[in-house]
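Data availability (excerpt). The following record was deposited with the supplementary files.
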Amino acid sequence: MYATERQELIERLLAEEGRVGVHELAARFEVTTETIRRDLDALERVGALRRVHGGAVPGDRHSTAEPTVLERAHRRTRAKVAIASAALDLIGPAFRGSVFLDAGTTTAAVADQLPAYLAAARGRADVVTHSLTVAPALAAAETVALTVIGGRVRGVTAAAVGAGAVRAIESLRPDVAFIGTNGLSAGFGLSTPDPEEAAVKRAIVDAARRVIVVADAGKFGVESLVTFASLSSIDVLVTDAAPEPDLAAGLQEAGVEVRLA
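Predicted structure:
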């Protein structure tokens, strides 16, 4: 395969997956990691991508870049459904307790599956969320008692933010929280582009007895503008691919359980 053909395929994979890794690409194309690094360097020079540790992300994915919730809803949908299913298995269908669902498309996948999952064993959950996309999936569910936290709604994420939302979350102590993130790295932890969104996420992490992060592999190695939690602040990461070595080492050191969907 010529370099130009390989680079076109790398661009296509990046558009579909949101992130590509050097070692995965080398195995896929049966070439050396040095060859892949040269391909990524060439693509970066023409603005097709941006190099990050261990791979690359789209060229427009900077620390403050944030696609809308509608744009993200159609990305990696199969992975998000699988992650949500694996995440729910951590609480079990007979669960009876309180859950906080963060804003995000992967947490929305958890919300979509939660009512039927609980119904299978007559489980029940008191669910709290600040997300206007998560709430509709739960509003009429017989197995869920829903509370929605208000505040100023960010159009990009359809999530309530602001001091009032943070104070309301700080008054809670949910049994488990399902958290989404824009970025996940060994050095910077969990991060998101918006400071107000970060404040809400930080409050959720601090409030919950157990923190389960649901994030696809496209978030690995990404460092958005604002960190909201260290790796040691979370209990479980549910994802669709094994983290690269440095992130895997950081998660292990922090005592985080990693579950692959």
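Summary of structural features: The longest strand covers residues 96-101.
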